Amino acid sequence: MSSSTRPILAIVSLVLIAGALLLTLFVLIGGGSDHNPTNQFYFLEATTTGIPNAAPTTRWTLWNACSVVNGRNACPKVHPAYPLDPPRNFGSTTGVPKQFIGTHQYYYLTRFMFAFILIGAFFGACSLFLGGLALCSRIGSFLSSALCSIALFFQTITAALMTAAYVKGRDAFKSNGMHATLGKDNFGFMWAAMACYLIATVLLCAGGAASGSSGRPKESRSGGRMFFGRKQKNNHQRGSFIDKETAVDGDRSSFERNGA
Q1: Ordered mean pLDDT values, 10 residues apiece, the chain (260 residues)
Q2: What is the DSSP string of 114-157?
């Protein structure tokens, strides 16, 4: 792979990283903003009619358990790292599916998810800023790739925690005879961001490898030709000098025999 492909790989990688950050931003804003279209993003929607202090339909986001008005989130307050924990969310266990009662697994899964999504976004932003060096530097490609791989690691953990918590939560509501659906937008955004980080990491590594291998074989081959060419030339000159010495010795020997 020639070094001329490095800028192309770097540009594609930067676009992918920027796309991953944009998707992550949509998830972070969803539930924290009343503006369209982010007020339609959520992780889980469930019918909560029989639960005291709950709206007829509730949507869980990163910031609150929101009611639904005209198909949009209506979140009265904003609480960062808001957990999926109906007994804690509504202050009652009445009407809550039994899978949520007496356990904190949903609470910790969704709380840690919020922390990991922020960490992944931070390293993704650092990789994007250093990605400019990948356009002209081998070191820049590898540094940006390393940061992008860290973002990929935390984004993968975030997507896994999200899937585990909210899929189990949906199944818990359904087992209790309550309608529940997953937020396809947020799920698609999170897994798509992970895929973007993965592809960007591979492309940045390929760009660094391409810049490292470019030009060296040609220099080596040309250097080898020059070296061996000089060596052959020196051997030829040395051979000519030896032949001349041999001829002089032969003439001297013939002169001595004639004189004798």
Answers
A1: 74 95 95 84 95 95 92 87 95 95 95 96 95 81 93 98 97 96 96 98 87 47 45 50 51 49
A2: HHHHHHHHHHHHHHHHHGGGGGT-HHHHHHHHHHHHHHHHHHHH
